[in-house]
Specification:
mainly alpha, 6 helices, 83% helix
Amino acid sequence: MQINKKQFETLFQLYWKRMFLFTVKTVADEEDAKEIVQEVFKSLWERSSNLELADAERYLLRSVKLKSLEYLRNKGNKIRHHKVILHNKTPYYEDNNFQYKELKNQLNTVVESLPNQCKNVFKMSREEGLTNKEIAGNLLITERAVEYHISKALSIIRLRLSESLNI
């Protein structure tokens, strides 16, 4: 039988409470049980125009059972993932944080060793976020000179960091 609005409402009134009680026993949470039953009825309504049901009660109870089991499986996976994240979070974060600080220190050392004009241009560009035109105006040099100093700074930084990181 294909389901029209009236039949859908009848099925809802006949089976929602039974489906809800089964789901609450299975998932042990009323709000989650309500959502699961709602999902089953939503799916039934969305598929009502092309769904052929011989036994609506069996279909609905089986659907809510499968949705409940899916919920439990997903909840179990989520709990396991949270445990893994909590268990591994600190060392991974601390390791990355240490590596970041170490790399930043190396970068600062290389930047500080650049020739003065090159260092000033690089810092104004990268740390202060100034445009090439603004840097040129502040230092009374051409934009072309700014580009040259930035290019030179990046070349030196790449070279020295790759040497220190053995890349």
